[in-house]
Structures are given as structure tokens and as C-alpha cells.
Amino acid sequence: MAGVLSFSSCISTKKTTYLQGKDREMDSIIQIQQLKKPYRIQTGDLLSIRVKALDQELVGMFNPVGEADNNATTEERVYFDGFTVDDHGNIRVPTLGEVNVLGYTEREIREKIENLLLENYFREEANLFVTVKLAGIRYTTLGEIGTGSQVIYKEKVTIMEAVANAGGISEYGDMENVKIIRQYPYGEEVHKIDLTDIDATQSEYYYIQPNDLILVNALPQKALGLGTTGLEIFRTGVTILSFVTTTILLFSRI
């Protein structure tokens, strides 16, 4: 009985090992899928916008300084000083008012703000320098992985970095069928990626996007509750077998 349980319930190391090369030679060059298109801003995104010029006093109003709390964390400062894209795709910029950024790239927003400032408030001689960035890559993890809202302050984040930042996938997590629920202007789509295969680095979903939900479901072995290794399952099987044998002996004496 223990042998049957061990055979049917043991979790193979192939299911719990990241980015296996299979037939690939060690130290070979790995081609990593790069982002094909720049990310386009969606509602709910948080932007960091800074304006610089030869005379910094002239652009001071465009640069929040986080006066609310000097002891605020980086996350809190970004939240209060950043520009949130509202449900209509707009951000509120000092003096400029409502600026629509829905569907724009970071570069397109930068150019738009520069043009608006030069048209209405500054001359070319001011040497304006505008930077526009997403205030971190924010995503959510759920299931057999550290659960909650996560943020990484980088311009590009791979799913491996996202998983590591969340604490990794548990021994019961189905690494072969990791789901990425991604938001699009027309709704949501569910994509899958196999993190046990080195070819995951060539997937178009290898890089996560803001507002992604990473879902890792449990393997069937978790529902059985017998353990993950052959030794654990064998011990569980022996315990069950001993219990059944003892019960039969007790009833046979009645």
C-alpha cells in the first residue's frame, strides 16, 4: 500500500525545478524574449513625473516634494507624489490641469507634457528636461506563492524576478501552469507559462506588465495531504497501514 501511495503521489523534482535545460548544453547562450512593444498606460497606473530647467524655481510647482510626512516610506511617497491615471485616462498636472495619457507610452507622455509647457509657459531657452516613468511595476500574486500586492522599482521585470520578490513558489505549486491574468483596454486575458522549462525565457509573457495577476494553483498532491517526497509518502503509508492492521486485529478479537 505504501509503495502504491509513493508511486502515485510523490512530486517529481522535474515539477519543482525552475528553468530546466532538458537537452540544452550547460553554459550555452540563452535567448531571452525582449519586450516587443513599449507598455501603454492604463487606468489605475501610477506615474512619476519630474520637470527640470535652468531655473529650478520656475518648475518647482511641477515637482512634488512629499511634505505630508517626512517619515513616510518610499512606497507612501511614491503614492502621494505620483500622478494616478483616473478612470477617464487623465492625470492632473499643476497648471496644465487634466492631461489625457490613456494608451500613451512613457515617451509619448513626456513629449506631450514638454510641448504643452513650451506652448503655454516656457521658451526654448529654458532648456526643459521632462522625465516620465511608471512608479514601479505593481502586480499581485495569489495561490501557492507569497500572496499579496507586490511592487518592484525597475523599468522591466521578468516573471522570475516577480516570483522571487514574492518569496518563490511553494513545493506544492504547479510551476508548469503558472497563469498570468493581464489587463487590456478591452478586458482581461489569461496567459500561461511553464517555469520549469528554460524556453520560458523566450515567451512573450516572460516580462510582466503593471497590474498583472500571477496565479499559481496547487498540485493534486496537496489535496491528498500525503507529503511531497517519497520518504514522506512512505512514512504516511506505513502509518495508515499500521492503523488499518491494528483496527482489523481489534475487531477480529471482539
UniProtKB/TrEMBL annotation:
GO biological process: monoatomic ion transport
Protein name: Sugar transporter
GO molecular function, one term: porin activity
Domain SLBB: 143-216
Cellular localization per UniProt: Cell outer membrane
Gene Ontology cellular component list: cell outer membrane; pore complex
Residues covered by the Polysaccharide export protein N-terminal domain: 36-132
InterPro entries in UniProt: Poly_export (IPR049712), Poly_export_N (IPR003715), SLBB_dom (IPR054765)
Membrane topology: Multi-pass membrane protein
Family listed: Belongs to the BexD/CtrA/VexA family.
Keywords: Cell outer membrane, Ion transport, Lipoprotein, Membrane, Palmitate, Polysaccharide transport, Porin, Signal, Sugar transport, Transmembrane, Transmembrane beta strand, Transport
Domain of life the protein comes from: Bacteria
Broad class of the protein's primary localization: membrane
Listed Pfam families: Poly_export, SLBB_2
Keyword Transport: yes
